[in-house]
Predict the structure.
Amino acid sequence: MSRRSTAPWVLGILAALVVSAALLSVSLGAIRIPVERVLAVLLGDGSDPARARDALVILSIRLPRTLLGLMVGAGLAVSGALMQGLFRNPLADPALVGVSSGAGLAAALIIVLGDRILAHLGLPGPLPYAVLPAGAFLGGLGATLILYVLATRSGRTAVATMLLAGIALGALSGALTGLLTFVSDDRQLRDLAFWSLGSLGGATWAKVAASAPLILPVLAAVPFLGRGLNALVLGEAEAFHLGVPVERLKRACIVLVAVAVGASVAAAGVIGFVGLVVPHALRLLIGPGHRLLLPASALLGGAFLILADVVARLVAAPAELPIGIVTALVGAPVFLWLLLDRVRPDDV
Amino acid sequence: MSDPALLTARDLTVTVAGRDLVRDVSLGVEGGTLQVIVGPNGAGKSTLLRLLSGALRPTRGTVAYAGAAIETIPPWRLAAMRAVLPQAARLAFPFAAAEVVRIGLDGIGRGLGARDRAAILARALEQADVAHLAGRAYPTLSGGEQARVQFARVLCQLEAGRTVAARQVLFLDEPTASLDLRHQGALLDAAAGLAAAGIAVVAILHDLNLAAAYADRLLVLDGGRLVARGRPAEVLTDELIARVFGVRWPVGRVPEGDQPFLLPHRDVAGRTPT
């Protein structure tokens, strides 16, 4: 009962956090724009010629960047929560089970070999820009498909197999990406670093428009999954006994995660640990029930990535830190702590 | 009387890697009875239960609920008609005991009002003697406490399901395995109470004495086959115990009535007589 009545409060507070983080993100940067001027521009008072520069910075650079961060963060955190529920393992993360690294490998292939393949075919370069994110998206889907096929026998998906196969696939992708790094030139090396550590630096309205139709439907599907995932916590047979169409639920989760993570990597590179840290922190604060955990993960994931991006922009200004470094600095210790905490109590 | 039987299984066979785990088992389950499946390790008891609950598809044979083949019944509808208490369930996430119990209401209880749901939840917690554990994190409970929380969850599912399905089956897979004597008795009392209220209860028990005390009907499985069925007083004989379980412990009778019992003991050489 208490959980139910606290849910609106939790979501309200997190929504306020998202708005605050977004305002901060639009306000801070190489040029600092006070929040009241941000609000003036956003609320349509951009006609004032004195504000033209502010309006330009806000509307064409920072706002798309903030919105992209919000979507990518929400998508990654929800994907993490879905995977943890699906695998019944709080250590699952899209980046740890091969989906992100599959997308990253596809990006690396295109960065390093794309122009050579074009030259080989006698076609004029360079590659159209959209090839890279599209390739990354398909790479993520491909990695998921491989995992799914490996783990599925006669219509039933063994999630433990999928988890372990994902770790192996992640290691393989990492090795191949490393090999590509070895044969790349300086410019490609810089691009690879961007992809493997992630950045919101290249955010444009076009990227926002390309990501929204992929990530937003995933977020919209979230309210329909909580009940099934709660039952799945008891075990697959128990969930079936409780009336959950288990195989359909698993397929739905896998597809949603593949789409959201693929779109995130395509837009911002491989950003690790968001999907791990955000649901975990929320479980400590609001409990493990998925009906609240999933929407709360979306909100906190968005806020977390926006704030991580602010840190990435400010720490080494005017240069930018890859955002994946910021999230990993926060996330890796949390992961270790989680691991230690988990080994202790009930494992024999 | 024209209602089709609540649950019928015909010629169930499950073959895995060339071995029959369950072989040619046919049985009927009717409301108001408590049937107990017994048998040695590997006899196919749990496999049979999974077939009857729909968690496993047979290699051959059919299972039907109220005349409808089980594979044609959607999961949510089936969940209103039968509930299953698993052997043991561990949780990776620290759900509170009451939240675990409430999961039993989440699916089929959706149509109920908040007050009805709260009442069902409170009754189930009380009946399984876990009301005092409601706020505790499930993973921190002992095995026996976890089993009772799961029983409360199953009671919730049955009661919510009763608003949709008039006739129900409850499956219990070794429900007493981790319980102390008092809670073994309490759980089986509750199961017998549900049977008296018209629910068909099918339980797997290892303890033949508990089985003899509570079963209206005993089903003996051996090597995947149903080798005996009937009232415990008829089924449990010296000959059957020796043949199926491989021990020579003579079957006694409790002083009042004809309920059989087994007293484990050693022979003069200090071993279990086989």
